[in-house]
Amino acid sequence: MQCEIIELSNSLDLMVTRNRKTMKGVANLVLALNKLSKFKFDRDLSNAQLCNTIMDCVMEEIVVEKGSSFCTEEKNFNYSRLVKHVELSDQYKKDLIQNSEEFRLQAITLKGGYCDLKVNFEMSCYRPATCYPNTGFTVHLSIRSNSKKLHLCCSKPDDKVLLFLKDCSDKCLSPDEQMQDSLFNKSMVCRDMATFESVKYPGWFISTAFEERDDSVEMCQADTAFRVTSFNFRFKD
């Protein structure tokens, strides 16, 4: 066994352990280094932030499914076995909770002993052959509520895209069940902040309200006034 240490920056080294050399292994290493090189590391990064950045570059694909496409060309989805458990809050630290009476999310600032009300998301990664440039991963977001699995989905009954939670506890998510309704393009804004754009409705983003008293979590277009589309995310153990 051979080991090689590559210095990526003053505060980050990469250790490569070699057994049998394969072209697949070399290709995976080159892709990972290319993704890491897009981020600017510094000495102020905490271990959690560094882990978040590296983990966001990890993708292990195991199955390919064909799905219907809203574009002119066929869309393929490569599903990853990697499921990340994350907490989300908007860039002004509003936490996301589930409305106890409706299948929707709310954004409020939790204090004191109420922090356990925030929802924990399961984030699964996909790799679609999109018909337009995509600068991040495509992800599916879901939460657990009273033993039920709720998927975060979109619909467009009129000229506005709606965001809601859908009970899919007894179903397997597949392209035949309008998979694109519950897929979002996750694009990095900075090290641990990202936007989530609907795959089926390009140009529409998950958002919260700028005003503290407005707890709505809705879809909005990028240029909508007084809406916040950037979210902090933290991976959980």
Automatic annotation (TrEMBL):
CC annotations in GO: cytosol; extracellular space; lysosome
One of the record's GO molecular function terms: cytokine activity
GO biological process terms on file: cellular response to lipopolysaccharide; cytokine-mediated signaling pathway; fever generation; immune response; macrophage chemotaxis; neutrophil activation; positive regulation of cell division; positive regulation of gene expression
Location (main, coarse): cytoplasm
Keyword terms, alphabetized: Cytokine, Cytoplasm, Inflammatory response, Lysosome, Mitogen, Pyrogen, Secreted
Compartments reported by the entry: Cytoplasm, Cytosol; Lysosome; Secreted, Extracellular exosome
Keyword Cytoplasm assigned: yes
UniProt keyword Secreted present: yes
Endpoints of the signal sequence: none
Protein family membership: Belongs to the IL-1 family.
PANTHER family: INTERLEUKIN-1 BETA, INTERLEUKIN-1 FAMILY MEMBER
Protein name as annotated: Interleukin-1
Organism from which the protein derives: Cyprinodon variegatus
